[in-house]
C-alpha cells in the first residue's frame, strides 16, 4: 500500500514548472547559409539561448516565401521575410495567389534594407538590365524572395523568363556558376555586403548592374514598396556608387506565441544589440528607432509593449494598434 501511495503521488505530482511566458523552443527561419539572414539568425539564436534559456536554432531555407509557409504552419517561431513577400501573403497575390490571405501575420521588428544586386563580371559585357537578354541568369531559389524580385525587375524592363536563360540558384550556387563561366549574371537580394559577392570580387572584376532611370520608375509605380538606394563605391570592387532598388526586411513572429513570450524575445534582442550588430554589417540597420520602418504588417502586441516601455512608441499609439487588431 505504501508503494502504491508513492506511485500515485508521483503520478499526480506537478511536472517541472516553467516561468510564465517562457519560450522553450525557438526555430528561426532564415535563408541560405552564405547570406546575412542566416548569419544574423545564428546570432539571434545565441542571444535567446543565453538570455532566455531557450532551445534556439537557425534553419537554412529558401528564404521569404518558404519562411512564411514555415511560420504560418507552426514550424518556426521567427522568420526573416522581405516586405514585398509579406504584402503579397497578406493580399493573396503573387506566389500566394489562390491561397487564403494571411491577415494574422505580425512582425517583431523591421530589420534592415535588402538591396537588389544584379551581379556579373567585366568579361560578360553586361552593363544594363537590358543586356541580360539571352544570357544565363541566376534568379534565386525557386519561389524565394530573390526570385520574386527578379521577376518584378525583368517585368519593369519589359522582359520575362522567355528573354533569359533562368537558373534557380542560391547565392553561393549562382556565384560558383559565375566563377565557372556557366552563368553570366545573378540576382542577389540581401543586405550589404553579401559574402558570396565579396568572394567573387577576390578573383574577378565584379560589375553591379544599376536599376535606375525609367526602369526603376516603372518598377516603383507598379510595386511602390521599392525604394531607390545606392550601393556605396568600394562595397565590392566597384569604384563608384551604383543605384539600385531596395526593400525592407522584417522579422515575422509566429501567431502561436502570446504577448508575454514575444515581449521577452523582443527585450532579449534589443538589450543585446551589440552582439546582433557584430554578426553582420547589415545588422547595424536594426535599431529601436526603426522598429516599424517599412512595416508591411502590424507589430505584435508583445513587441509593442517593449517599444512603449522604451519610449519609442506612445502608449496611446500602442493602445490604438491593439484595438485595431
Q: Summary?
A:
This is TRAP transporter solute receptor, TAXI family. The protein has twelve helices and ten strands.
List the topology elements.
Layout: H1 2-12, E1 25-29, H2 36-52, E2 55-59, H3 64-72, E3 78-82, H4 83-91, E4 106-121, E5 136-138, H5 145-156, E6 165-167, H6 171-179, E7 185-190, H7 195-201, E8 206-209, H8 213-222, E9 227-231, E10 242-253, H9 259-270, H10 273-279, H11 301-309, H12 315-324
Parallel strand pairs: 1-2, 1-3, 5-6, 5-7
Antiparallel strand pairs: 3-10, 4-7, 4-8, 4-10, 9-10
Report what the structure shows:
This protein is of the alpha/beta class. The protein has twelve helices and ten strands. Strands 1, 2, 3, 4, 5, 6, 7, 8, 9 and 10 form a ten-stranded mixed sheet that branches. The radius of gyration is 22 Å and the shape is globular. The N and C termini lie far apart (56 Å). Mean pLDDT is 88; it is low at 1-18 and 319-325. This is TRAP transporter solute receptor, TAXI family. It holds the Pfam family NMT1_3.
Biggest sheet layout = 10 strands, mixed
Assembly of the depicted chains: single chain
Helix content: 25-40%
Report the order of strands and helices: HEHEHEHEEHEHEHEHEEHHHH
Uncertain spans, ≥5 residues at pLDDT below 50?
Answer: 1-18, 319-325
Mean pLDDT: 88
What is the general shape?
Answer: globular
Structural class: alpha/beta
- Measured distance between first and last alpha carbons: 56 Å
Number of strands: 10
Q: How many helices does DSSP assign?
A: 12
Question: What percentage of amino acids are in beta strands?
Answer: 15-25%
InterPro entries: TRAP_TAXI
Organism: Schaalia radingae
Protein name: TRAP transporter solute receptor, TAXI family
Pfam families: NMT1_3
Amino acid at each position: 500500500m505504501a508503494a502504491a501511495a508513492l506511485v500515485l503521488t508521483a503520478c499526480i505530482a506537478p511536472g517541472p514548472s516553467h516561468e510564465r511566458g517562457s519560450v522553450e523552443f525557438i526555430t528561426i527561419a532564415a535563408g541560405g547559409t552564405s547570406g546575412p539572414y542566416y548569419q544574423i539568425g545564428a546570432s539571434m539564436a545565441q542571444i535567446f539561448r543565453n538570455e532566455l534559456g531557450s532551445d534556439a536554432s537557425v534553419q537554412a531555407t529558401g528564404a521569404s516565401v518558404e519562411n512564411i509557409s514555415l511560420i504560418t504552419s507552426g514550424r518556426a517561431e521567427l522568420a526573416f521575410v522581405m516586405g514585398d513577400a509579406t504584402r503579397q501573403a497578406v493580399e493573396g497575390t503573387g506566389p500566394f495567389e489562390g491561397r487564403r490571405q494571411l491577415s494574422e501575420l505580425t512582425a517583431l521588428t523591421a530589420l534592415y534594407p535588402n538591396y537588389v544586386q544584379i551581379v556579373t563580371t567585366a568579361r560578360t559585357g553586361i552593363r544594363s538590365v537590358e543586356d541580360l537578354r539571352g544570357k544565363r541568369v541566376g534568379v534565386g531559389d525557386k519561389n524565394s524572395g530573390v526570385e520574386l524580385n527578379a521577376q518584378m525587375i525583368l517585368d519593369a524592363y519589359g522582359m520575362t523568363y522567355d528573354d533569359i536563360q533562368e537558373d534557380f540558384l542560391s547565392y553561393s550556387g549562382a556565384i560558383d556558376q559565375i566563377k565557372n563561366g556557366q552563368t553570366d549574371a545573378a540576382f542577389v537580394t540581401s543586405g550589404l555586403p553579401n559574402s558570396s559577392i565579396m568572394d567573387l570580387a577576390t578573383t574577378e572584376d565584379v560589375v553591379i548592374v544599376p536599376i535606375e532611370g525609367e526602369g526603376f520608375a516603372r518598377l516603383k509605380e507598379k510595386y511602390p514598396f521599392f525604394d531607390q538606394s545606392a550601393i556605396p563605391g568600394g562595397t565590392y570592387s566597384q569604384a563608384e556608387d551604383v543605384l539600385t532598388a531596395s526593400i525592407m526586411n522584417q522579422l515575422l513572429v509566429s501567431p502561436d506565441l502570446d504577448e508575454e513570450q514575444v515581449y521577452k524575445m523582443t527585450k532579449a534582442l534589443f538589450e543585446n544589440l551589440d552582439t546582433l550588430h557584430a554578426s553582420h554589417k547589415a545588422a547595424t540597420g536594426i535599431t529601436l528607432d526603426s522598429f516599424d520602418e517599412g512595416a508591411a504588417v502590424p507589430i505584435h502586441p508583445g513587441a509593442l509593449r517593449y517599444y512603449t516601455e522604451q519610449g519609442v512608441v506612445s502608449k496611446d499609439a500602442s493602445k490604438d494598434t491593439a484595438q485595431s487588431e
